[in-house]
Amino acid sequence: MSVIITLLAIICAYILGKRSRLYRTNAGERKVAELIQAQLDPQKEILLNNITLPCNDGSTTQIDHLLISQYGIYVIETKDYSGWIFGDPLSARWTQVLYRRKTRFQNPIRQNYAHIKAISALFDFLPAQDIHSLVVFSGDAKFKTPMPAGVIYADEISKYLSSRQEMTISLNRVQFCLGRLSFYRMPPNEATDKLHIQNLRKKHNRLA
Asked: Which of 15, 50, 136, 170 would bridge 20 by S-S if both were Cys, CB 3.0 to 4.6 A apart?
């Protein structure tokens, strides 16, 4: 019975993941998804992409990639940037320098923290240490300040995933996570993306 459940879970995740890539997926996100997928053990873990979840305040949060694994839950934010990157974990904004032009952008660690909170609330039966934040830079950007913990380049994904040793989540819990996520996530379609963009604009206007 567990084998049948596992196969159904994998098929479900594959369909949802494939559909989700049709919307708002840039080249960097596709690259990261493909690199992660190439490293996965389908008997122990499942990758889903472009996940939009409703929040209690009526807003939404959108996660680039979610790896549900017996090694843990990995909430992954992709940044497809070029140039030089300057930033540290505590700064609200980081800086990109490209052809002498400086651009400030939100600290992706902080950005991913909101995603972590949403997933932690959804998977409230898991201990906090089983949920991990990972930021992946998929372009040819290079850090000119020390790279913070939990931030890697795309070409380090294989090393990062292969370094995992301890399985802390049972297969039944992996399947339960997938079921709960499939129930609560919003449909991966253009209408959901439009709603999320509207919510971001409302949030930006409130903060302005």
From this structure: 50
